[in-house]
Amino acid sequence: MDTATTDKDRFVGVPFYIFITALLGSVALANAVATWRDGTAALVWPSLLLFAAHIGLYWVNLRQFTGKRWRLFYCAAQATLIVILATLPYGIDSNATLAASLTITQVGEALGLWGNTRRALWLGLFYFGLLSMLLSLSVARDKLLLSAAGIMLNGNFIVLLMVLYNQQLAERQKAEELTETLESANAQLAAYAAQNAALTLQAERQRMARELHDTLAQGVAGLVLQLEAVKAHLAAGRDERAAEIVEQALGRARTTLAASRAAIDDLRATTTDLAAAMRERAERFSQATGILCTVDVATDAGDELPNVTLEHVLAVLGEALANVARHAAATQATVRLAREDGALLLTVSDDGCGFDPAQTPGAGHYGLLGMRERARLMGGSLSVHSAPERGTCVQLVAPAMVSTG
């Protein structure tokens, strides 16, 4: 926005010009009456017309003052009119008072339009010089100092009021701008908070899906298949085979229940001792599956890690062990956690049947996808090395960020 437009918005405008019109109109009429009484009636109408032109230029300037060419014309025209009006033969006292009134109103207008700026200062100095010249021409030398002192005292008082008023307007404008800025910032913060809440909810849903996708869903699906097989064997009279499948279904149900409880515990609880949590996971895994699981945690591997990193590492470990239990047909598994070159390394390996990592998982199998999502959220990567009859090795590499609190 243009500075002149801003200053114009701050300027009172019409009330100020109404005051100038009333003041200068009164002066014009008083001088016209004095001129008529002095016997110089021929000057009455010319002086009134000059006053009318002077006042009219004020009102035109209210709308046109932003133009540079207009400002030059306006300043020159008003200065010329002031000189003419202040030098007409009204009498010595009348000329001095008129010159002061005309120049002070010009200074007041400059302060009103431009505020406490350098432009207003230069205009004020110009009209001060013009007033000094007019006083030297219209006031006797023995009275010049006293007359100038009185005029300057009154004029400076008016100018000081305008300066203080401008400062008040500027402070009020700053306060309004600050209020608008604060309101805008509050609106943005509210929008960001709503967006963050939505993203947090979405992230939490994804996290719960990663935690539970291969516990309840896969476990119940397996139980349904086994129960259908039992039904088929019973219908065919193969009771022994049906009983075997029932035993297998009971084992699967216990495993699914244990895995579901573990997942729920992970969602509710947080831990700061990663090594202890990993050993607990391994022990629980061995008890549920009968597969021997050894844990090797480096001395400083789990120190001062953020809670988010702990949660992701434990989730990847739980998913990797769940895959060993469901698919590997292994007899033992090994878990290692270490730090190398500033990175955190989690390795889960087994001696099972292995698989082809390039093969696309079937529908409903999101274990590897969930582990890779967690690795990405940590700013790391997940690699899977496996081959038929050679076992599987899952390795998580992530930045070992240090907790700040």
- How many H/I helices? 11
Order of SSEs, N→C?
HHHHHHHHHEHEEHEE
Shape: rod-shaped
Tell me the strand order in the biggest sheet.
1-2-3-5-4
Radius of gyration: 46 Å
User: Distance between termini?
Assistant: 47 Å
SS elements, strand count = 5
The poorly predicted ranges are 1-11
Helix-strand makeup class: alpha+beta
Could you explain how this protein is built, in words?
The protein is an alpha+beta fold. Among the domains are: 3-139, no CATH class; 274-405, 2-Layer Sandwich (Heat Shock Protein 90). Helices cover 72% and strands 9% of the residues. The protein has 11 helices and 5 strands. It has helices spanning 3-10, 14-37, 44-64, 68-87, 92-114, 118-138, 141-235, 239-268, 274-289, 307-328, 367-377, and strands at 292-297, 332-340, 343-350, 381-386, 392-399. It has a 5-stranded mixed β-sheet with strand order 1-2-3-5-4. Helix 2 (14-37) runs antiparallel to helix 3 (44-64), helix 5 runs antiparallel to helix 6 (118-138) and helix 10 (307-328) runs antiparallel to helix 11. It is rod-shaped. The two termini are 47 Å apart. The model is unreliable at 1-11 (pLDDT under 50).
